[in-house]
Design a protein that fits this description.
Strand 3, helix 3 and strand 4 form a beta-alpha-beta unit. The protein has an 8-stranded mixed sheet, sandwiched between helices. It is about 40% helix and about 15% strand. It is globular and about 60 Å long.
Length: about 290
């Protein structure tokens, strides 16, 4: 038997990382996300397609509480899709309960692979955070209370943004991000180069070096928490990745939680953020002290 990563064959790696393949109602869930997002964007106070950069893909949707008490805390939600699927438009629904609690929610979009590489997508998100920090006060937000959330590949980007050296690269405080909530994230990208995704992502050694979290974790200069959530119905590798990130984070004397949410898969776990009594929502609201 030929192993390509740890004790996994190529076929097993594909099975571990094609994490929605075994969700029997996958298509129905995605249709629900799309429909709920269209409805929420239609009926809620919001600004759509706000430019944060010169590229046509560099746009964000901003959702407001019906009763905005300015300055409000700001939550960014970064969508997943393995850097090659989806845009911001499918994920507006996650803003509903956060806005109800008094937060402003910003959902950015970004360019997709293979048009650009993953490291360029991360740079787009870094530029987005720099723009948001400088602009959100004009939208009623509090730039000193900026929190990130991300799902799947978006979870990787949320953590990477927390670990960015903002002072050196953008002249901003290194504690610009006050906390991260990551949902079903992937943080070690090495196994992806042995999977079906490699033909789209092109993760060569240079890219993997640029995207590694090892050094930024060791020299992290801020104070934000990382709260990691993953569903019990997800693959062993996804659960491992969240657990190991949390353990490495705690070993460096940082705070946060790691929770495996019972009965949740890689998609319906998002209801724990979007619905009023969701476990992820409650932890994020507590992190924001709302």
């Amino acid at each position: 038997m030929s192993y390509v990563y740890r004790s996994f064959t190529r076929e097993q790696i594909d099975k571990q990382y094609d994490v929605t393949a075994n969700i029997v109602n996958r298509d129905a869930l995605i249709r629900r996300f799309v429909d709920d997002s269209k409805q929420y964007a239609f009926e809620s106070p919001c600004e759509l397609d706000v430019a944060f950069g010169a590229h046509v893909d560099e746009r964000a949707d901003i959702f407001y509480p019906k009763k905005l008490l300015s300055p409000a805390p700001v939550v960014v939600f970064i969508h997943g899709g393995y850097w090659h699927k989806f845009t911001k438009q499918e994920w507006s629904f996650i803003a509903a309960s956060l806005c109800e609690r008094g937060a402003i929610v910003v959902v950015p979009t970004y360019s997709l692979c293979p048009k650009v590489c993953v490291s360029e997508i991360l740079r787009q998100m870094q530029r987005f955070i720099a723009w948001l920090h400088g602009s959100v006060q004009a939208h009623g937000g509090d730039p000193s209370r900026l929190f990130l959330s991300g799902h799947s590949a978006g979870g990787y980007m949320a953590v990477s943004l927390l670990l960015t050296d903002w002072q050196r690269e953008y002249g901003m405080p290194n504690d610009v991000i006050k906390g991260v909530t990551t949902i079903s994230g992937v943080y070690d990208l090495e196994p992806l180069q042995y999977s079906y995704l490699q033909s789209t992502l092109h993760l060569d050694n240079r890219e993997l070096c640029l995207l590694s979290m090892t050094e930024p974790l060791q020299v992290y200069r801020g104070r934000g928490d990382i709260n990691c959530f993953v569903g019990s119905g997800e693959s062993c590798e996804f659960i491992r990745q969240s657990r190991e990130l949390s353990e490495r984070w705690w070993a460096l004397n940082h705070s946060g939680v790691f929770e495996v949410l019972p009965g949740r898969n890689h998609l319906d776990i998002l209801f724990e953020l979007s619905e009023p009594n969701g476990r992820i929502l409650e932890k994020l609201v507590a992190q924001m002290e709302l």
